[in-house]
Amino acid sequence: MDQHSVTGRTLAVERIRVGAGGRHGGAGVCAIPLISAGDPAPADAVDETDAVRVAAWYALSGLYALSLPFWMSGTMSQLINQSIQRSTAQNPEVSPPPAEVISTITAMMSGVLWIAAIIGVVISVVIIIGALNRWTWMFYVVLVFLGLGAISLPFNIIGALAGSTALNPYSLPVWVTWLSVVLGIPSTALFVWMLVAVTRYGPWAMTRKVESPQMPQPATG
User: Fold this and answer.
1) Which of 6, 88, 126, 212 is most exposed, with minimal Cβ within 10 Å?
2) Is residue 99 domain-shared with residue 131, that is, in the same domain?
3) DSSP 149-182
4) pLDDT the model gives residue 169
């Protein structure tokens, strides 16, 4: 009995001698594939699991990016006002900028947030489409994005614990940093999952359709 491995599945092949008068005077050989009952999950299942997890995560990421302008605009306005107040306190001889200038800067920051949100949504949609279609290059793009997030997670944790430090140069509220930590944990877990999957099975589990072997005709004399 020969053993063959086809896309992670153990295939037992039983050879049965049929007839007589084959090449070199031997009997004909017929190969019948028998799939063992203890086969692991097909590669298609791993493939679909990867695609669904990536698509779900980036659907949530797109919604998060779209929500940024709504709750970050006020925070950015406060940061701008605090920065101007600190500058005025450090340089009392310099008059503070007019209110119109401050309003213009705040409006510009809101515009930047909306542009960033739109870009984030577009990227998320493209990744979702690529994941559901199981594009090979998209797998590695997602792996890079998640890897960068995994690298930044320890720094976000340190910044959240330390408060205002060199890791938080803009003095963002602590809850914003902790939000980054909360989002970074599942992102890092997904990165580890995909890294293990690509090591064991290849990108998107390298799904291949395997055709059933044709039954050879018995050798005739």
Assistant:
1) 212
2) yes
3) HHHHHHHHHHHHHH-SSTT-TT---HHHHHHHHH
4) 52
